[in-house]
TrEMBL record:
Organism: Hymenobacter gelipurpurascens
GO terms assigned for molecular function: 4 iron, 4 sulfur cluster binding; metal ion binding
Taxonomic classification: Bacteria, Pseudomonadati, Bacteroidota, Cytophagia, Cytophagales
Domain 4Fe-4S ferredoxin-type: 390-418, 422-450
Transmembrane segments: 49-69, 90-109, 143-163, 175-196, 230-253, 293-320, 343-363
Protein keywords: 4Fe-4S, Electron transport, Iron, Iron-sulfur, Membrane, Metal-binding, Transmembrane, Transmembrane helix, Transport
Name this polypeptide is given: 4Fe-4S binding domain-containing protein
Length: 471
């Protein structure tokens, strides 16, 4: 038996002194969050928070410019599995613990008391009071803190993505789009509506992702507090975009029009989650779990929405009115239907989309929520697979099996297998980010919105064309 040979691990490339300085600035900014969180003095906490945001912003943007501008244009996925931060090493686990811990504090330990104290995050929350007053004409709360951090992450890491993918017009425009929608529609506009004493409404989120927007209670609240003009428009906008706009746009462009261009969840995944996209599980078993989880979640929220409206109409099934709430729910003093909606909000809206969806980026990839839990992604996926013109065409004759396309697919699709066979990619889970096409060194993959005829005959068409050329 021949002795086994172990090849030495190649060393990581050296980091220049300038990059080290910029990374140190980012580290100092993160450290400044500690006095911002724990300082008893309000002025010190406020100055520390703004110093932290300034240092992190300046350091990140300058570091991205230094790291990517000095290299030739093109995607270089080097050393991802050698770095502790991107290979599920100690740094990745530490990052996951910090992110998960922050989300746990935010969702369950930051509700204000009668004195306006937000628990562990009180100093951080009130440090944003001046900014909140300027935009919303009211003091900050835990969700304004969350939205500010969320938006800042998309803007900063979006700046990084613009440098990294500067050679690709599609990636530049797509990145700019998610930055615009997050800043304008998901952060500024809802705050301005509050300043004018109107409901805080997110025009870039639709049912079933923003599941309560079509609940009877929310519809009534929007109509009452939004007024006869704006309130009616909000309800109309939510309903039309959910049931008319979404199918039409998905027919022409696939689910990418939303998941990769508009949605804040997708925006964070495509920017802040970009370093972790290669971590998504490409196995068939992972795909089976994806199907087992995401479609029941969609069915669950559809059922809850229908039951709530049946209850308002007085036509709720009799067995729902005879069962005692305490016998089927942990939420006391709630009807069975209301308990189901509260359970969905807790288990899916908070635990899955919030804590797991972002906290597990460094361990499971950047689209954990989009892939396994988002009901909007499931809804769009059904439309995309069976009713859309969108597909990714492949040219198997040009594929060199480098595997770059599969490596960068954050939705766990083994793109290389399709490319090798020359088959078009028509998958419900594909978000159309176009990264597989961007990293392909041979131009094998192309995002298309062509006629539906031939969507499933890509390999036959390519084979016939290849035979014609050879003959």
């Amino acid at each position: 038996m021949l002795p086994s040979l172990s090849l030495p691990t190649p060393p990581l490339p050296t980091v220049s002194a300038t990059e080290k300085l910029l990374l140190t600035i980012i580290g100092l900014g993160l450290l400044a969050l500690l006095p911002a969180t724990f300082a008893a003095d309000a002025w010190l906490a406020q100055m520390s928070l703004y110093a932290a945001m300034t240092l992190v912003s300046m350091g990140t943007l300058l570091w991205a410019a230094r790291k990517f501008a000095g290299k030739p244009a093109g995607v270089q996925q080097d050393n991802l599995w050698l770095r502790s931060s991107t290979s599920r090493g100690a740094v990745a686990w530490l990052t996951a613990v910090v992110l998960t811990g922050f989300y746990v504090l935010l969702y369950w330990f930051s509700s204000p008391d009668e004195q306006g104290n937000f628990g562990f995050l009180n100093s951080l929350v009130h440090s944003l009071d001046p900014l909140s007053q300027a935009i919303r004409q009211r003091p900050s709360d835990q969700w304004f803190l969350y939205g500010t951090f969320y938006t800042l992450a998309i803007l900063l890491m979006g700046g990084r993505a613009l440098w990294k993918y500067r050679h690709s017009p599609y990636q530049r425009i797509r990145t700019a789009s998610v930055m615009f929608f997050q800043l304008g529609f998901a952060w500024l506009l809802p705050g301005v509506l509050l300043a004018f004493q109107r409901p805080e409404y997110y025009f870039s989120y639709f049912w079933p992702l923003k599941y309560d927007y079509l609940f009877p209670g929310t519809v009534g609240y929007l109509l009452k507090d939004g007024g006869p003009g704006l309130g009616v428009f909000m309800v109309f906008w939510g309903a039309v975009m959910s049931f008319v706009g979404t199918p039409i746009l998905t027919y022409f462009f696939g689910k990418r029009w939303y998941c990769s261009w508009v949605c804040g969840c997708g925006g964070l995944a495509e920017t802040a989650g970009d370093p972790y996209r290669h971590l998504s599980d490409k196995s068939r078993e992972a795909w089976r779990w994806e199907v087992r989880i995401i479609y029941p979640i969609l069915a669950f929220i559809v059922l809850v929405t229908v039951l709530l409206w049946l209850g308002v109409a007085g036509t709720l099934p009799a067995w729902f009115t005879t069962v005692q709430p305490s016998s089927i729910t942990l939420f006391s003093n709630l009807s069975p239907v209301d308990a189901l909606s509260k359970f969905y909000g807790f288990a899916i809206g908070a635990v899955f989309s919030g804590v797991v969806g972002v906290g597990f980026y460094p361990l499971m990839g950047s689209r954990v929520w989009c892939r396994f839990g988002c009901p909007m992604a499931a809804y769009l996926g059904i439309l995309q697979k069976y009713l859309s013109r969108f597909r990714i065409t492949t040219n198997g004759a040009q594929c060199i099996s480098c595997g770059n396309c599969s490596n960068v697919c954050e939705m766990g699709i083994d793109v290389k297998q399709y490319a090798q066979r020359g088959e078009p990619i028509i998958r419900a889970s594909c978000v159309g980010c176009g990264m597989c096409s961007t990293v392909c060194p041979r131009g094998v993959l192309n995002l298309e919105n062509g006629p539906r005829d031939g969507r499933y005959q890509g390999s036959q068409l390519i084979t016939a064309e290849s035979l014609r050329i050879l003959s």
